[in-house]
Endonuclease/exonuclease/phosphatase family protein (Salinimicrobium tongyeongense), 345 residues
Amino acid sequence: MKGLNWFDRFLFLLNILFAVALLFAYLLPYIPPAKFALLSVFSLGVPLLIIVNIIFLLFWLFRLRRQVILSLVVLLIGFNHVTSVYEVSSEEDGMVEDNVLQIMTYNVRQFNQYGWAEDVDIPQKITAFIKAQDPDVVAMQEYYKGELEIAKSFRYKYIKLKEENAEFGLALFSKYPIINSGSLDFPTHSNNNAVFADIVKNGDTIRVVNVHLQSFGIKPSLNTIEKEHSKKVLFGMGQTFVKQERQMKLVKEAVLASPYPSIILGDFNNTAYSYVYRELRDIGFNDAYKEAGNGFGKTFEIFDILPLRIDFILPQESIEILTFQNYEVPYSDHYPISARLRLGE
C-alpha cells in the first residue's frame, strides 16, 4: 500500500475483505446445504459482493492505481458468476419457425387474493399481459384456485393444488396437447411443490417441469430481521435451503426418468449462485437467460432493494434457446420471464 494515504489504505483494506468474501462465495454452489445450512444463506448476497467489487475496480481504475488488479482478478476468476448478474446477447432475427415454442413462467402471488397490492384489478391485468405476449405454454406458481379468463386461451391445462382443500398450487397451461402429467408431491410439511406435463407440438414431445422450491414462509425483509433475533432468522433461512436440496433431488429424478427432452422452469426461491441451481444445470441443462438474455435478469427483490434472479427457464441442452425476455410488470412480487425455444433437430 505504498504511496496511499490513510483513507485510500482504509478503502483498500475494505476492498480486500470484499474480494476475499467473493472468492469464498464462488465455492458456495459446491457446498450442499444439508452439510452447512447457514453457509448457503450467503449465496443471496453474491450479487451485492459482485457489485461492490465492480465499484472498487472502477474507483481504482479512475485513480489509475495498481490496486485495481485485485478486484479485476477476482471478477475474472468468477466471470461466469458475474454474467449471472448482467448479460448482453444479440437481438433476435425475427424469423418465424414451425418448431419454435414460446414458454413463460410467472409466480402470480395468488392473483392478489389476499390484498398485498391496493390494485383490485390484478387478475385482469395479468390476463391482459399474458394475452398480449401470447405464449404457447405458461407455468404459474402460487396459482389461486378458480379459472381466470386467460384459461380460455389455452386448450390444455394441468392444475395441482397442494392439498384437496387448498386454495393455491401450481398450474400449467398449453396450446398443445398434454399427453401425460403429474405431481412430484413434495413432503406434506411443505406448501411448495413441482408438477410436470408432457406436451406435444408438431410431433416433438417435451416434458415441462414447473418448479416452486421451498419458500421462506415470509418474505425476507429488514423489518423481519429487526424484529426477530438475527441468528434465528438465519437458521430458518438455512433450513429452507436444506429443504430445497431435498426437493431438487425429486426434480432431478423427474427429468432423468423422462423419455423426452425436458425444460425445468419456475420459482427456485434461490439464485444462480446456489447449490440447487448448479446441481440442475450440471445434469445437462442450459440457462435461457445466460444464453440469450439482455441486461439485468432481476425477477425479485429482497429487502425491497437488492435485485435477485430466482426465477429460471432451464431447457435441456438438446433444445436450442433462441430468445429470452424479462418483463418488469408490477402485478406480483415476482416478474415473469419467457423464452423462445427450438424443438427437435
Remarks:
- The CA atoms of residues 5 and 49 lie 25 Å apart.
- The chain has a mean pLDDT of 87.
